[in-house]
Amino acid sequence: MKKPILTLLTLLGFSLVVLGQERPLNIIAIGAHPDDCDSKFGGTAALFAKMGHNVKFLSLTSGDAGHQSQGGGALANRRRAEAKEAGKRLGIAEYETLDNHDAELLPTLEVRHQVIRKIREWDADIVLGLRSNDYHPDHRNAGKLVQDAAYMVIVPNVCPDTPPLKKNPIFLYMQDRFKRPYPFVPDIVVAIDDVIEKKIDALDAHQSQMYEWGPWTNNRSQDQVPKGKKERREWLSKRVKRNPGQMSEDRKASLIKWYGAEKAAAIKYTEAFEIAEYGFQPSKEEVLQFFPMLKPAKSIKP
Ligand SMILES: [Zn+2]
Hints:
Elements: H1 4-11, E1 17-18, E2 21-22, E3 26-31, H2 36-50, E4 54-61, H3 72-90, E5 94-100, H4 109-121, E6 126-129, H5 137-149, E7 170-174, E8 188-191, H6 196-205, H7 207-217, H8 229-240, H9 249-259, H10 261-265, E9 270-275, H11 284-290
Parallel strand pairs: 3-4, 3-6, 4-5, 6-7
Antiparallel strand pairs: 1-2, 7-9, 8-9
Zinc ion (ZN) is lined by residues 32-33, 36, 136, 139.
């Protein structure tokens, strides 16, 4: 099922002005594992979806290594179902999980072509990926694969079975905490206070990760996770919401740039994005078109 929102909006005669064209934006976020995009982009994705834009999450691996006692096809299917549920909770159009093995992702030509085709099939205006600086080799390689697809998406002789994009999309990196060789730059910061509960709901759908594998890798603390559904979500919520309003100086400066000092001071939860040099380079005005939630609300005249 492709872009049901677009179909629905078209049926309703509803459209948005996007870069001079009357249509919703197409956004694809590409992670290594089912849950990468949710944790780094879930809030902003929910905002885009609420505004009628087409958001797709793509996991390049099946996540079949992400558990202490489960694995293989059974785990891959469990995580595919969790991802689908997370996508539903965020309200996004699609969450696809590819069948490449977890913990074995390499920046091969074969996977690069998979990425190029997926970006083209989504007719993407915005592509989000990971940086190639990260603790996990899959994250590093997923980042490299998306970088390698930038520009190639417009080259007709590459994957000629899938029509090339007319224009190189804007490529963005999703946030991380790694400092070498250079730290993440928060070029764009989005307030997600309005959708923080939706983001937590989406993370809560990844039961195998949030309540089993994640705590296990954290000093084998899975026994400290509450058993009840409600209690677990509450436990997760506390972790996601820790340190509200606290952020690095550069992120704060960027938040003020986009929202103004007064509004920025009241914002508790954010997601940040760095503009990659390999895609379309937007001006400040164009960033506002790509991220309509940053546009200041029009003053209502009496
Ligand atoms: Zn991951």
